[in-house]
Design brief:
The chain has 235 residues and is α/β, with parallel strands linked by helices. 40% of the residues lie in helices and 16% in strands. It has helices spanning 15-26, 56-70, 93-121, 144-164, 189-193, 204-215; strands at 6-10, 30-35, 46-50, 75-78, 124-129, 169-176, 224-227. A seven-stranded parallel beta sheet has the order 3-2-1-4-5-6-7, sandwiched between helices.
Length: 235
């Protein structure tokens, strides 16, 4: 009998991350879910690890938990991230430190360890959740720190896809538009919806479907899947 596949998902306590946990469970995967304040799971095939993924010790614990509990890591979804929309000259040192630590440090430590395990297995898949704003800057939504950090994830997606493609590890990215989650107040949603050619904000399910497509597309690597209602095509 084929072993049950295992997904590690960061930023998993709410929004897109919580949706990803449900989506991977829906296709029969066991899941290790991480976020700073995630609650203990009551499901035998979902294990939670609370802690800041930008801390290398937490990243080590996440990977160790997956291996101790399930014996393998098939997929890592780097979903944890911080988005702070401010004019560039108004970012504080604290903003800078927080965004870099989570968006880049949170990616680096856990991905390095996960890919090491995937190479040993001879297969694996990493999906980085970025943002369409990296490629489609918008004057009404200043987001230089998102571009600086998520842009780094976009670049490293291709780099790692090339470096590890011959060893069975695929690396892709999903670039969402603006997704309707509780972080967006109701009074802003009409304006945010208008930023997308299709005339609406995205849903969590829109993003999870994109991630599952990449998961189930074995000849796709180094790819950026835009789940953005046409935002990256123009406006």
């Amino acid at each position: 009998m084929e072993a049950r596949k295992v997904a590690v998902i960061t930023g998993a306590s709410q929004g897109i991350g919580a949706g990803l946990v449900s989506a991977f469970r829906g296709i029969g995967y066991s899941v290790v879910a991480n976020s700073r304040s995630i609650r203990a799971s009551e499901h035998s095939e979902v294990v939670t690890v609370a802690g800041d993924i930008s801390d290398s010790a937490v990243a080590e614990e996440v990977i160790a938990t997956a291996l101790d509990r399930f014996g393998r890591i098939d997929t890592l979804v780097n979903n944890a991230g911080i988005f702070i929309a401010k004019p560039f000259t108004e970012y504080t040192r604290e903003d800078y430190d927080n965004v870099l630590q989570v968006n880049l440090g949170g990616f680096f430590h856990v991905t390095q360890k996960a890919i090491g395990q995937m190479v040993e297995q001879g297969n694996g898949h990493v999906v980085n959740v970025t943002t369409t704003l990296v490629e489609y800057a918008n004057s009404s939504l200043p987001s230089a720190l998102a571009s600086l950090t998520k842009g780094g994830l976009s670049s490293v997606t291709k780099s790692l896809a090339v470096e590890f493609g011959g060893r069975g590890v695929r690396v892709n990215a999903v670039s969402p538009g603006i997704i309707g989650t509780p972080m967006h107040p109701e009074e802003t949603r009409e304006t945010l919806a208008s930023l997308h050619p299709v005339g609406r904000m995205g849903t969590v399910e829109d993003v999870t479907r994109g991630v599952l497509y990449l998961e189930q597309a074995p000849f796709v690597t180094g790819e950026f899947l835009h789940v953005d209602g046409g935002q990256s095509a123009g406006h």
